Amino acid sequence: MSKMSSDGFKKVNKDELKTRLSEEQWRVTQEKATEAPFTGVYDKHFEAGVYLCVCCEQELFESETKFDAGCGWPAFNEVLARERVRLVRDESRDQVRTEVVCARCDAHLGHVFNDGPPPKRKRFCINSASIVFRSVEERQAKARQASKE
């Protein structure tokens, strides 16, 4: 029997996840690795839609909040809903940063910095390997399908 999380979603099974994710996605989300800059599929991606956690498919960022920070990773100035991520002090690599983690499944997403555009001044620097994109059309179709179930 699958265990449910507190928000009513099926918990992510690590064995299943390891078979479903690419090696890069696993390293980034489960081992807190960072993809090389300017290599991720979503760095220069600006289609309208929403970005989801690659592990649990929780919606995290809307395309309207994405901007080109020139840093080599997808950058967003805010999260779709604050309760969808956890911010964790990260003292790895001889520096202090704030890690961004999916609140539903604990996947490592990236880091947040206070050097983004006004007025929020936030730059959620997210690994492409930790997210998946759903277009406006795909999102609407999924919502229609869910309403029929």
Task: Write a brief structural summary.
Helix content is 19%, strand content 27%. A six-stranded antiparallel sheet has the order 3-4-8-7-6-5. It contains three helices and nine strands, in the order ααβββββββββα.
Describe, in plain words, how this protein is organized in 3D:
- With 149 residues, this protein is of the alpha+beta class.
- The chain starts with 13 loop residues before the first helix and ends with a helix.
- The longest helix has 13 residues, at 136-148.
- A hairpin with a 6-residue loop joins strand 5 and strand 6 (97-102).
- The chain has three helices and nine strands; from the N terminus they run ααβββββββββα.
- The mean pLDDT is 91.
**Structural class designation:** alpha+beta
Radius of gyration: 15 Å
**Order of helix and strand elements from N to C terminus:** HHEEEEEEEEEH
Distance between the termini: 21 Å
| CATH second-level architecture | Beta Complex
On the 0 to 100 scale, the average pLDDT is 91
Main sheet overview: 6 strands, antiparallel
- Quaternary structure of the protein: single chain
Which regions contain 5 or more consecutive residues with pLDDT less than 50?
A: none
> Can you count the helices?
3
In total, the number of strands is 9
Strand order in space, largest sheet: 3-4-8-7-6-5
- Kindly report the CATH topology: Metal Binding Protein, Guanine Nucleotide Exchange Factor, Chain A
Name of the top-level CATH class: Mainly Beta
| Percentage of residues in helical conformation | 10-25%
